[in-house]
Amino acid sequence: MRVLFKPYQIKDVVLPNRIVMPAMCQYSATTNGFVQDWHILHYGTRAVGGVGLIILEATAVEKGGRISEHDLGIWDDGHIEGLRKIVQVCHTYGAKVGIQIGHAGRKGCGPERVAPSAVPFSEGGPVPMELTVQEIAETVSLWKEAGRRAREAQFDVLQIHGAHGYLIHEFLSPISNHRTDSYGGSLENRMRFLLEIVEAVRQEWPANKPLSVRLSAVDYLPGGLTIEDTILIAQALKEKGVDLIDVSSGGIGPASIPLAPGYQVKYAEAVKKQVQISTIAVGLITSRELAQEIVFNERADLVALGRELLRNPYWVLHASSHSDKLWPKQYERARTT
Ligand SMILES: Cc1cc2nc3c(=O)[nH]c(=O)nc-3n(C[C@H](O)[C@H](O)[C@H](O)COP(=O)(O)O)c2cc1C
After folding, report:
1. How far is the CA of 21 from the centre of ligand 1 (A)?
2. pTM tops 0.85, yes or no
3. What is the number of structural domains in the chain?
4. Domain membership of residue 285 as a residue range
5. What is the pLDDT of residues 81-105, one digit of tens each?
């Protein structure tokens, strides 16, 4: 089991182990996107619980890009202080901290949803407004500013949310992108928006810290993204200075998804092997054996546990019971009976 608990260095950031808490919305911010005590407790508890890398929930680059009215925000300099507090608390207890920055696009909560094309998520659903080229450029600069704020808040890892049917994924997928200009049509055109964001964010995000992108590897829909497309996207991202791909799937439209433990690992493995880039595997990974198998057999570099870490914030401590290193000294007397 030990490889799971070995440190992993990516750029100048050394993660204490290979376990990641993936971004999970808490729907607990104020309606202006500010951090609440809940966030300090929630993320701080996972740091005490030994998680190597905690990635904060989807945090909106603009108010109109929120998934819910209680999303965290990073569209204003006023947000930096609260976010920095989360980072500091988690650092005190040994975890590294990332933040996922995102824009909900046509899956937003406001009345004025935007998207690459005026195509609804599902039949009869709200029709989003198609972004003009000028608006695309303005949106890219919002991500850049969010990257600066993430740097000022002292995060270790920055993750761009390019998955789950939100704005970036909407550009990537032919299901939602029907544009005929330089942002639509070929895969090269559909990934232009994402690559422009990466380029802009890289100018603000320190070169010695990892930049991650979360992708939906497949759309599970005819005519949608395939793993072959995702490998080409990941290759282009690597060339633009992305260090870590978090490999998820689905979300662009209603689809039936075959579920089983580790069901997305094969996609993380394909990206890792074919692009030679670090990956996070995620999705129904709950047992220490499966987590270990994935890392030991080099199918992914890091393993994320989402709902399992909501159920059990001390999963890492239990899984590493052979090692006293991860246990906080305050809990030492409980380590062995
Ligand atoms: C409550 C909840 C909120 C989530 N919010 C986000 C999010 O903000 N960003 C994201 O990329 N994925 C989000 N996800 C997806 C998780 O990061 C993860 O990919 C998914 O739950 C599958 O992993 P699991 O089977 O280990 O839970 C969320 C999942 C849950 C359960």
Report:
1. 9
2. yes
3. 1
4. 2-334
5. 999 999 999 999 999 999 999 999 9
